[in-house]
Amino acid sequence: MGFLRRLIGLETRSVEAPAGGIPVRDPRLAELLFGSRFNRGRYATPDEALSAVGTAARCVDIISQSLAALPLVVSRITADGGREPAPDHYLHGLLNQVPNGQSTSFNLREGLVRDVATVGNGYLRQEIDGRGRVSALFYIPRPWVGVERLPNGRLRYRVTSPAHGTQLYTADEVVHCRYASRDGIMGVGPLEWAGMAVGLAVEHSHLSHEQATGGLLPFLSFETDATFMETNNGNSPTGDMGDMAFKRLKDQLTERVEKMRYSKSPLLLEGGLTAKPISTTGQEAQFHEHRLTSMEDIARIFGVPLSVVGLGRNSSYGSLAEESRALVQNCLTPWARRIEQELMRSLLTAEGRRQYAIEHDLSGLLRGDPAARFAMYREGIEATILSPNEARRMEGMRPREGGDSFNNPNTTPGGLAQEPAAF
C-alpha cells in the first residue's frame, strides 16, 4: 500500500523532485511530449477536434456515457473460478452510487473515460481511511495533472488546482487510466494517434465555416467588351485600363460584393460589366464527399459504427441491429476492459485481486429485442447453462421458488423426452 511505502521511506511527497527525477511541470507539457506530433497541415489539438468535428464529440459522448451508465459489478471469485455478486464490498457503493460528497458515480466515471478518450489520460484521486481502504474517489481534471518519474521508477502526480494550489500524490493515491502509450507513462488518445486524419477533418470543418460565414457567395468574374483608360476628362473607352481606373473599379466591386453577405440586394453593374460565376467543375460535390469521408474516418478511429453517429447510408433494421452489437463487441468491450483492469490494479491489493473482480455488466446492451432475449433464455435453460431465476434476474424480476434448479424442462428426471400431452 502507499501508506507503507511512504512510512519506510521509499517515496516522498517533497514539493521538489529528488535528484535524478524526471519532472513534467506543466500539465499540458505531457500531452505535447507524449501526445501526437504534427500532421503535414495545421496541428489540431484534441479539444479543437471535439469543437470543430461533431462526429468526434459524439463518439466521445457515446463511449463515456455508455460506460458510465453501466453497472460496475464487484464480484467475489469463488473456489471454482466463478463469479458471485458482492454488493456488500466497500467499493460497490463508491463505483455505482456516491464516490464522494460532491458528485455521483456517473459523473465521476464519465469524466474519467472522457479524458482517456480525448487525450489518452484520465485521473482519479483516492482517499484512504485509517484501515488502508479506499473511502472516497475524486475526479481530477486532466489539465491539472503533471506526471513525474521518481528515481525508483515509480510515478508521482503534481496536481495544480485553482482552489488548492499545487499538491503532490504518490502513485498509490491516484488512478491513472491510459489509452495506448508510446513510453508506458503517458497515454496517447485516439485523436492523437490518427493526427493526419483528424487534422484533415478539422480543416474541412473550418473551410465549411468560412463558406457559411461568407454568405455562400460564389466565386465571380466580371467581364466587359470595352476597357477604360484614365483620362483628363474621366473614363473613355480605349484599349487599355489605367491603374487608377482599375483600382477604383476593383474597390467598388469589392465593397458591393461584401455588402451582399449581409443583404440580398442585387448587384448593380455599370459600363457594360457582366458578372459570371466561376465554374468549380464539381468541386462543391467533391468537397461534400471529402468532408463526409473525413467524418467517417473519425468514427472508424473510435470503432463506432457509422449508423450510431448518424452516418449510415441506406441502413436497414437488420444492419442497424448488427451495428449495435458491433458497437458493444468492437468498441465498448475493449474500453470496459481497460477501465476495469486499471480500477482493479489501483483500488485492490494483490490479495484483493485474487478474491474480487471489478467488471462492467454489458449483458443489458447485448440482450436485443424481447423475442431474441426470451429465445436466448429458453436455449440457456434447456442447455442447463442458466437457471430460471438467473434469467429472471437479468430481466430485473424477483426469483421464484424452485427457480434455482438447472433441470431441462423438456426432459424427465431420467433424461427421456416427455411425450406431448393428449388433448
Average of the residue pLDDT scores: 78
Largest sheet: 3 strands, antiparallel
Give the helix tally: 15
> What sort of overall outline do the alpha carbons produce when their principal axes are compared?
flat
Q: What Rg is obtained from the alpha carbons, in whole angstroms? A: 32 Å
Order of helices and strands: HHHHEEHHEEEEEEHHEEEHEHHHEHHH
Return residue spans where pLDDT drops below 50 for at least 5 consecutive residues: 1-10, 15-22, 24-40, 229-234, 414-423
Helix content: 40-55%
Q: Kindly report how far apart the N and C termini lie.
A: 70 Å
User: Could you give the order of strands across the largest sheet?
Assistant: 2-1-13
Which band does the percent of strand residues land in? Answer: 15-25%
Q: Please report the total strand number as a whole number.
A: 13
Secondary-structure content class: alpha+beta
Describe this protein's structure.
This protein is of the alpha+beta class. Helix content is 42%, strand content 17%. The protein is built from 15 helices and 13 strands. The strands form 5 sheets. It has a 3-stranded antiparallel β-sheet with strand order 2-1-13. A 3-stranded antiparallel β-sheet has the order 4-3-8. Helix 3 packs across helix 4, helix 4 packs antiparallel against helix 6 (105-119) and helix 4 runs parallel beside helix 10. The longest helix is centred in the C-terminal third of the chain and has 31 residues, at 317-347. The model is unreliable at 1-10, 15-22, 24-40, 229-234 and 414-423 (pLDDT under 50).
